[in-house]
Amino acid sequence: MGDGNARQRKRRGRPRGRHARQGLPEVSLRRDAVGLRDVLFQSVTSMAPGAAIAVSIPAGAAFAGGALPLSVLIALVACLFTASSVAELARHLPSAGSVAAYSSRGLHPVVGYVVAWVYLLVEALVPALLLVQLGFTVAGTAHQEWPGYPQNLWWPWVLAGAAVIAVTGYYGIRAAARLGTVLGAFEVLVFVVFAGLLIAHAGRHNTLTVFGTAHTPAAHEGVGGVIAGSVYTVLAFAGFEAAAPLAEETRDPRRTLRRAVLGSALAIGLLFILTTYAMTVFYGPDAFDAFGASGAASWDGVARASFGAFWVLVFLAVVNSTIANANAAANASTRTAFALGRVGVFPRSFARLHPVHRSPVVGLLVQCLAAPAAALGLGFAYGPDTAFLLLATVVVTAIISVYLLTNLACAGYFLRRRRAEFRPVRHLLFPVLGIAAFTPALLTAAGLPVFSFVTELTAPVSFAGAVVALWSAAGLVIAVVLWRRHPDRLAATGLVHLDQESP
């Protein structure tokens, strides 16, 4: 028995498949550790539905007014085009490198590396962004309820949130996925129940006219206001791709990841439509252009004024959403860094796994040091509110860039490598429509005044575009050097490291 176990361990440590042919060490995450429910909630929590409903989506109300439900519906359709591209690629290229592997195989290994480099920036900064939000949300609410609590005492909550993410991540993907499932289910349930209460209280004021242009504000009348609102609300959908980096730890990944990516985008999109409709008809469509993320005309304000202690559940759902999203981002960033370290295009220490929990311990350590450092550094330098806006702008600008290249990669992969399986609608039309949908969102997120409804950013938030551009340029330089010196390593970013690999 002992000799059998020893032989089995030895076999597991040997290079196999394409790894063996390229002389690279075989390092495996825990296979078959999670299923559809777990990876579905990995994407769901990465979309942060609670925070999106309460904070992100109301940003479109000033433009769409009472037609905001229609804007959200349009944003959902637009998002599904890109989700389809990710799902199609995940079905054929289940890899911890996810978007890096897609662009490497669909476009070029240099592009794949740059995409990975930018995606690492996104997923490394998302926890910092959410920890800042956790800090000022809890501190602000505590100060509102108990004036003796200092509103500027936000930073201990940053450290507390970072500790939760670190401990959960250390114990492996099963623990992290279970936490995500519980937290994600809670925030979804709270807002579904709240939406039901709003619709019931609206009574005869329930109307489908909010899915037309009748209630757009005077400053943004008609279809133009609806489109402007959808550009802002589409930003709330970011994160649906986060299931993809768990490919090597997922049971039946080719089938499961496709369902998780599409399922999360569709399910949370429908939740966004439901909750936006409910609040619009309750608050009043013709006055909804005044609705926002704070004050009396907000989810928190309505809950406090009309539903008594229910505001506590809304508060807990938003807090819960920040922790769940940060946890999901840490899962994605550590797996992406692991994939790059494994093939030698990132420090190989990032491929080091815990001997028992199979968690990428070095990546987790770096993530759990960098996130609170960025949150505290920017928070103390500019204040937590401004730090949040700066980090959010960097993250959204970077992730939309990744989405645009992933759409291109989908078309390239099926045209170049899977021509027999190429479907014009799914593999060309949908990617083109995904690019068309996210390009205005990218310009809006970066604050470039291409459209009349785009608000030009001010410093330091306006630095976000330069940060993403410089980071991307640095990644391109590194990729070109690697391509000249170690082309085999760079090409390996597109490999599928499962026992049964894609041809």
Automatic annotation (TrEMBL):
Ranges of compositional bias, category Basic residues: 7-21
Membrane topology: Multi-pass membrane protein
Residue ranges of every copy of the Amino acid permease/ SLC12A domain listed in the record: 39-482
Ranges where the record places region Disordered: 1-24
Keyword field: Membrane, Transmembrane, Transmembrane helix
Residues spanning the membrane: 39-64, 70-90, 110-134, 154-173, 180-202, 222-240, 261-283, 303-323, 361-382, 388-415, 427-451, 463-483
Subcellular location, principal: membrane
Subcellular location: Membrane
Gene3D superfamilies attached to this UniProt entry: Amino acid/polyamine transporter I
InterPro entries recorded: AA-permease/SLC12A_dom, APC_superfamily
Keyword Transmembrane among record annotations: yes
Superkingdom, taxonomy of origin: Bacteria
PANTHER family for this protein: AMINO ACID PERMEASE, AMINO ACID TRANSPORTER-RELATED
Protein name: APC family permease
Organism: Streptomyces celluloflavus
Lineage: Bacteria, Bacillati, Actinomycetota, Actinomycetes, Kitasatosporales
